[in-house]
Every structure is written in C-alpha cells, then in structure tokens.
Amino acid sequence: MKHTVLIVDDEESIRFSLQGVLEDEGFNTILAATGEEALKILAGKEGIDIILLDIWLPGRDGLDVLKDIKRNDSRLPVIIMTGHGNIEIAVKATRLGALDFIEKPLDLNKLIITIDNAIYMKELEEENALLRRSAKKDSELIGNSPAIKKLRQEIKLVAPSDAWVLILGENGTGKELVARMLHNASKRSNNALIEMNCAAIPEELIESELFGHEKGAFTGATERRRGKFDLANKGSLFLDEIGDMSLSTQAKILRILQEQRFERVGGNQTIEVDVRVITATNKDLEREIKEGRFRQDLYYRLNVIPIVVPPLRQRKEDIPELADHFLKLFAPLNNGKKKTITEGAIKRLSQHNWPGNVRELKNIIERLVIMTPGDTITADEIPLLGPEVSSEIDELFDMALLKDARSKFEKRFITKKLVECGYNISKTAELIGVERSNLHRKIKSLGIDA
Ligand SMILES: Nc1ncnc2c1ncn2[C@@H]1O[C@H](COP(=O)(O)OP(=O)(O)OP(=O)(O)O)[C@@H](O)[C@H]1O
Ligand SMILES: [Mg+2]
C-alpha cells in the first residue's frame, strides 16, 4: 500500500523537489503552499498518513497550523521543517505534538528515514489499538446455552461484591476468562488484576513471589521487589491452579489470606493490603481434602462463593457460536479473511466429546484455519476427533496383533492427553507418568502430530 505525504511549503522549488524525491521512493504526495490550504485539504480528504510542515509560511505560520492539525487528529504524524539553527522553534513544535523536525537545507536521506520511522510508529500504534480491542474481546464469554447464561448471571451478581470466589472447572473450560470477567465487572476494575500460577512456582520462592523481598534478603535478591500481594493492593489477586500447591505452601497462603498483612522477605516492616482473592482449580478439592492433599481450613477460607464452569460436552449447543468466534479470532492467519464452516462440519464437531473443552476447540479451529486450503471448512477437513469411544474399543478388540492394538491405543491416548495439556509435552509427560524423553520418542514412533 502506498502512503500519502502532504507537503506544506511556500517555496515552489522545495515543494516540487520533495514531490520528486518522495514519489521516487514510492509515496503519494499532495502539495500545499500555505497553512490555510493544507488545513482545507486535510478537512476534505482522508488517507493522509503524514505531513511535512514548513515553519515559515505566509499568513498563518507553521506552529499555528500545527495546533489546528493536532486539534483535529492528535495521532496524525507531523514533521516540521525549520531553518538551520532554529532549535527553539523545533522544541516548541515538539511540545505542540510534532513528531520530529528536520533542518533546512534538507538532507534528503535523513528526511526519508524520518518519514519511514514516523509511518512505522503510526502503524504500530494503530496495530496496538486493534490488539487492545481484540484483547478486550477475548475476555468475552461466548455462548448462549442455559449453562453459560447461568454462569454469566452468576458473574454479574458476584462481581460487584467483594466476596472471594473459587472457580471450579475442568481444563480449558474458561476459568481464567471468568476470573478476568469478575475483576473487570468489579469495583476494583480500575486497579490491577494480578495473576499467579501456583503450580508453576517453586516452593522456596513462593513467599518472595507473594510478599516480595528486600534487597539482600537472599542470594540473588539484588534489588527490592514488590510481591504479588503488594501489586494487587486495591485490586484482585488471581491464584490459579490452587489445587497444585504443596501442603506447606498452603499453610503459608492461609496465614496471609487470613491476616491480609505480611512482611517482605528479609524485611521487618508490616505491610497491610486490601486484596480480593479469586482462585481457580481443575481439581476436585473435596476429594483432595479427603485424601490429605488439601487443607480443609484453606478450602473453607477460599470457598466463599464457588462458581462452576461447565465442561463443553454439557453445552454442545455453544459449539457453533464458539467456532464462529474463533474463526473471527484467527482471521489474521488467513490474510484477515474469516473462513466459514459448513453445517456438516459443525455437526462433526458436535459429535466429539471435547475432553480439552473450549481450549481444544480453539486449537482445532486455529489449526483448521491454517490447514484448509479454501475459505470454507467442510466436514471432510475436520481431523479425526475420536469417534464414539465404544466403537473405538470394539475396533481395538477386532485387531489380531497385541502390538497393533497397543500402538493404536497408545496413539489415541497420548493424543487425547496432549490436547488436554495444550500440547505441552512436559505437562503431558507428568500427567501420564512417563519420562519426557520417552514421550517424545512415542510421539515420533506413533506418528502423532504434536
Ligand atoms: N465461553 C468462552 N467464550 C470465548 N472464549 C472462551 C470461552 N471459554 C474459554 N475460552 C477461551 O478458551 C481458552 C481457554 O480458556 P481458559 O484459559 O480461561 O481456561 P481454563 O479453565 O483457565 O483452563 P486451565 O484449567 O487449563 O487453566 C482461552 O483462550 C479462552 O479465552
Ligand atoms: Mg487457567
């Protein structure tokens, strides 16, 4: 795409020479001899990407024109052209919002670089605005099944209260999404939502993570660091995978959750915080308690309001809407064009049991967007998602050789677990109790597409 530069200079020779150079470089140019003319062009024409503005103009001077330009569109990049040694004016112009300035006589190479940079910055900013918008979209809970409607209603009721929430649900059902929604709809939404994955933090670091530490508290503590509790003050703290903490960590967490006061590691000043705690787990905590892996007192402390996120297989009517949502989300992978999906393909998706829930669906749609050649996804293109389990078992028993049945089972089993773990090899290996290297070998020998 060609970019358009508006050149504003009262000297005809400069206008024309700039036009020549810039068009050679692949830009479109528009010329204006006065500030008034430039403003008129800007008012009547869209698609100007950047302005080169001379300071000494007859009538209204450049700084004055700059003010007007910025008032109309504060993001339009303006590069000021000033006489040699006129730094004072350049500084003034920068304060008024000029992106950059360049001295006359013009160094054309420098000018081109300046323009390229300005356009790059503008595009980056536009891209970020788009990302911000889509990030916000991503925290939208899609679906209109009774289960999702109920969930949305619960979030709406619970969010404004300061109650602590425990979010329960299988892998990939949308627990993190629910946590974000709770925070965004709360009175605390102007303050931070700080997340911590309890499963990912080594036990000996958990206190320093949560409470922060003073400089020199331990080897490696080269600077004072604020902890998550500190950072979440007046906001929310989301403790994810709470069921994966060791018992001793649970004891530490319990103490601080009760007191909402703590000391930094290596410090002696007590810090008081006001934090709303939201937790999530895919474990059945009551069972964990029974088996001695989770503290009952902590469970009661956390379980002020439980919110259950239902698995996808219990709300298959959400699949078409979710699929559509993800097709939109992954349109950038198809040059911005959203692919469509046939009813047959949706039907096929609805037959699957979705052990990996919404995340699995999201991954599969992403894969389909990348892998299908056309713009329409048909049933034939849906990968084998595991037909009904019973018929699969029949198939295994029909095989003659143990070796074949075993590898068929292994392939299916490992694929399922990989999907559940978001194709994270280490996580899968841990889950199914095999060595990571061993799992790698299996994936290769069984021809699993990981
Ligand atoms: N109802 C929904 N509408 C739109 N997107 C969803 C929905 N549910 C889940 N997602 C998306 O699916 C992905 C997985 O969701 P999320 O990370 O919230 O799941 P989770 O329950 O925290 O999973 P895990 O237990 O593995 O941590 C995310 O990209 C999320 O945005
Ligand atoms: Mg999660």
Structure description:
This protein is of the alpha/beta class and about 450 residues long. The protein has four domains: about 5-135, Rossmann fold (3-Layer(aba) Sandwich); about 160-310, 3-Layer(aba) Sandwich (Rossmann fold), CATH 3.40.50; about 310-380, Helicase, Ruva Protein, domain 3; about 390-445, Orthogonal Bundle (Arc Repressor Mutant, subunit A). About 50% of the residues lie in helices and about 15% in strands. It has helices at about 10-25, 35-45, 60-70, 85-95, 110-140, 145-160, 175-185, 205-210, 230, 245-260, 285-290, 295-300, 320-330, 345-350, 355-370, 390-400, 400-420, 425-430, 435-445; strands at about 5-10, 30, 50-55, 80, 100-105, 165-170, 195, 210-215, 225, 235-240, 260-265, 270, 275-280, 305-310, 340, 375. The protein has a five-stranded parallel sheet, sandwiched between helices. A five-stranded parallel sheet has the order 7-10-13-6-14. A two-stranded antiparallel sheet has the order 8-9. A hairpin with a 6-residue loop joins β11 and β12. Bound molecules: adenosine-5'-triphosphate and magnesium ion. Magnesium ion (MG) binds near residues 176 and 240.
- SS class: alpha/beta
Arrangement of strands in the largest sheet: 2-1-3-4-5
Distance between the termini: 37 Å
User: CATH H-level name of the largest domain... which superfamily?
Assistant: P-loop containing nucleotide triphosphate hydrolases
The level-1 CATH class of the largest domain: Alpha Beta
**Count of DSSP H/I helices:** 19
Overall mean pLDDT stands at: 87
